[in-house]
Amino acid sequence: MEYWLSVRKDLRVSPVVEGLIQGDSPIYVERYFFKSVDRSVKGLGGCGLVIDLDGARVREGETGQWRAEFIPGQSALVPPRCQTHWHYSGPVDFVVIYFPVQAAGVLEGLRRLAQAKCQPITFADPVVTAVARTLSDELNKGLGAEEHFLQLLAATMLQQTYRVLTAPAVRLLGPRHLHFERINRVLKLIRDHLGERLSLEQLASEAGISAPHFRRIFREAMGIPVHRFVLMARIEQARKLLATTQMPISRIADECGFSSQSHLTDSFRSAHAATPSEFRAMHR
Fold first, then answer.
1. % of the chain with per-residue pLDDT over 70
2. Segments making up each domain of the chain, as ranges
3. In a 3-state reduction of DSSP, which class is residue 20?
4. How far apart are CA 239 and CA 231, in angstroms?
5. Would you state the pLDDT for residue 1?
6. Which CATH architecture has domain 3-173?
7. Domain topology for 176-282
8. What is the pLDDT of residues 235-249, one digit of tens each?
């Protein structure tokens, strides 16, 4: 039996929309409208994605020990065999995406991320929410649904989910920011010299201020510490090279400013729940 049928049984309600989307990243999609006080799901046979589209507040976890709280626009990546407990304060509208048990590509990447946490990973992203809604609306057309369009939507939603969960939570630096020119010069220096050693003093000198002052204004402007930003920029560049070139991993480590291949591997695994070689294999 398809494992989503056991979830349906636990929820004690049938979806208003459902359908299988084929392609490079096959998924099964369900959309639910219902009002319920409390439901427990024993665990998914594979990885899954829950997207809250509209309705009342939802909490997940044991009473008094909530693991997550949802409002419309929030989502959760649920690992395989993870029991969940859902508490609804009113009517809800949500989409559930089921991944195949044997996943590949971006689905495998998401599965690794989920299993590394061993509990639902919550996030909020307007693109994921909008695409999930469009996906279910298209499925609702029945025989009139366009399969190629559905596959494009599914791929976009999955890739965006992966990016949101692996990219640094960096703020967008607006031109009206008090230190826009200073920070912009530093960002350009980081982009142009990722393969080199980038010290706090060097970056502060580029900004034309003291190191302690620079550390403070950078975090205020970008939302993360400068050393974290540099590390994530290096990981992001390594990810691009792994996915688009056949460059040896040792050379990628050097090109991106890591002290060694093992340094790249440890940093990459921490961000992506996969080694560089595993990530490359998933994206070929």
1. 96
2. 3-173, 176-282
3. strand
4. 12
5. 41
6. Sandwich (2.60)
7. Arc Repressor Mutant, subunit A (1.10.10)
8. 999 999 998 999 999
